Amino acid sequence: MDKVNNPPHYNKGSIECIKYINAWEMDYLEGNIIKYVTRNKLKNGVEDIEKARFYLNMLIEREDAK
């Protein structure tokens, strides 16, 4: 198991989380939202969902400011 290059908490389906983020050309905020939502069941549970909410709120603020 390679926890640096291929961590199990990002590899539950047919595509690794970072490959999905890159394929959709997501920025930092968007990528972190996807990352934390994706891994919550395999790593930190509600803590990861709260982290996703933090980045989602930042994304909403950014988009509202446009």
Features:
mainly alpha; 0% strand; 66 residues
SSE layout and pairing:
Layout: H1 17-23, H2 28-39, H3 46-64
Task: Describe the protein.
- The protein has 66 residues and is mostly helical.
- Helix content is 58%, strand content 0%.
- The protein is built from 3 helices and no strands.
- The longest helix is centred in the last third of the chain and has 19 residues, at 46-64.
- The radius of gyration is 13 Å and the shape is globular.
- The model has no long low-confidence stretch (mean pLDDT 88).
Structure in a nutshell:
This protein is an all-alpha fold and 66 residues long. It contains three helices and no strands.
Question: What is the distance, rounded to the nearest whole angstrom, between the alpha carbons of the first and last residues?
Answer: 43 Å
Query: Quick one: overall form?
Result: globular
- Helix fraction, binned, reads 55-70%
**Strand content range:** under 5%
Following the backbone from N to C, one meets helices and strands in this order, namely HHH
Structural class: mainly alpha
Mean pLDDT: 88
Total number of β-strand segments? Answer: 0
The major sheet is characterized as: none
